[in-house]
């Protein structure tokens, strides 16, 4: 394949240590294996030299634009006051605009791709020419995420979230008219989008998992009566999930299993998450260099998310590691995995306690669900097959 693609991401796509980075990193590698890719990304934290080296290996031209500090939140607030979305203000960057204008004067792009609606504005003039093919990887239907936040929040934040959700929905509908193709991470997200914006321009491109990297390790010692939750721990749904589990499920589990351990693994834990460390049997790790040892030594992985969009990488990675996974209903909407066959489903606290106890007490169940999970991921979620649609670019 020949040609040139511009890829604009809302976050530096390496290291692939969180859901959106995992997806954008694999998209970048997939495209770079087929054509020349110029990558421009906003950086909400400093990019190390090692990160820059990895990105340069797969890009023709690279721009990492610093975009952190309180200024972006001020821009987000002013954006809302002007009747636009907070998201548009949060990702507003004159520096990125300047980079893209300079690149576009020197290069004719065959196509441009943005990761998320937040940076979709950079696919249009004056950043790129008007006749370029435009694709946006929405990843998830973000407007629905904000509307979900509104349902869970009290006033006045419920009003803020609801306003953001409604305005962002208008933005998403506009992109369905002005872009050649929109992508989301699952059939469920695609169908949700079409319910409020009927269009044939949206398609599902699922997440994958490196099943070799996350392959089960024979001989790994599994810690009895232990469970692990993995995620970026300043992300609102992850914070809410960990706290809900600690308050509603964990006390009863500790009564039944005095040696039980709950590991909360992931960077940037909020003060509320760090406070869980004071609860008997709970360990909050913060950032770890590799999540695999934590997944593989736990009796099971738990995903008690009450708000979840798309396909959760944390579910795929735990399943690829050959661990039993207990999952709340929301993350299951983006998966074709069958509860009771490939993983376990739990909704109420009573169901969570019953499922966790069943797994803790039955080694054969641990083995059977772990083996079924790993096999299912290998068959249905390889990155090469998941991203095949991007060949159209």
Protein model, in words:
Helix content is 44%, strand content 17%. It is of the alpha/beta class and 393 residues long. The chain folds into 2 domains: 4-205, Glycogen Phosphorylase B (Rossmann fold); 223-380, Rossmann fold (3-Layer(aba) Sandwich). Helix 13 (313-320) packs across helix 16 (363-380). The mean pLDDT is 94.
Provide a compact summary of the structure.
This protein has 17 helices and 13 strands.
Number of strands: 13
Structural category: alpha/beta
* Average pLDDT over all residues: 94
What is the molecular shape? globular
How would you describe the oligomerization state of the chains in this entry? single chain
Residue stretches low in confidence (pLDDT < 50, at least 5 long) are none
Helix content: 40-55%
Q: Topology as H/E string?
A: EHEHEHHHEEHHEHEEHHEHEHEHEHEHHH
Q: Whole-Å distance between the termini?
A: 10 Å
């Amino acid at each position: 394949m020949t040609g040139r693609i511009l890829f604009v991401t809302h976050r530096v796509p390496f290291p692939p240590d969180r859901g959106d980075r995992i997806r954008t990193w694999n998209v970048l590698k997939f495209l770079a294996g087929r054509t020349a890719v110029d990558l421009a990304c906003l950086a909400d934290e400093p990019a190390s030299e090692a990160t820059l080296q990895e990105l340069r290996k797969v890009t023709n031209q690279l721009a990492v634009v610093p975009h952190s500090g309180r200024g972006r939140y001020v821009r987000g607030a002013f954006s809302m006051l002007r009747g636009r979305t907070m998201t548009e203000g949060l990702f507003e960057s004159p520096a990125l605009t300047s980079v893209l204008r300079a690149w576009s004067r020197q290069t004719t792009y065959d196509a441009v791709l943005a990761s998320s609606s937040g940076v979709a504005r950079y696919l249009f003039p004056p950043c790129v020419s008007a006749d370029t093919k435009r694709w946006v990887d929405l990843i998830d239907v973000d407007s629905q995420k904000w509307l979900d936040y509104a349902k869970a929040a009290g006033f006045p934040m419920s009003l803020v979230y609801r306003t953001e959700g409604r305005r962002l929905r208008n933005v998403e509908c506009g992109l369905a008219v002005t872009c050649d193709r929109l992508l989301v991470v699952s059939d469920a997200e695609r169908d949700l989008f079409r319910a409020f914006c009927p269009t044939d321009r949206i398609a599902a491109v699922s997440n994958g998992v490196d099943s070799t990297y996350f392959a089960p390790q024979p001989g790994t010692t599994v810690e009895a009566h232990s469970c692990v939750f993995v995620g970026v721990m300043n992300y609102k749904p992850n914070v809410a999930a960990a706290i809900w589990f600690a308050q509603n499920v964990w006390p009863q589990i500790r009564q039944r299993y005095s040696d039980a351990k709950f590991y909360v693994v992931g960077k940037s834990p909020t003060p509320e998450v760090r406070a869980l460390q004071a609860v008997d049997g709970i360990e909050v790790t913060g950032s770890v260099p590799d999540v695999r040892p934590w997944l593989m030594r736990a009796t099971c992985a738990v995903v008690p998310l009450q708000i979840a969009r798309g396909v959760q990488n944390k579910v795929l990675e735990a399943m690829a590691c050959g661990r039993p996974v207990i999952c709340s209903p929301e993350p299951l909407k983006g998966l074709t995995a069958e509860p009771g066959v490939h993983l376990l489903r739990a909704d109420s606290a009573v169901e969570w306690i019953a499922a966790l106890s069943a797994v803790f007490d039955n080694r054969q169940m641990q083995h059977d669900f772990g083996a079924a999970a790993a096999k299912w991921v290998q068959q249905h979620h390889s990155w090469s097959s998941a991203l095949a649609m991007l060949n159209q670019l």
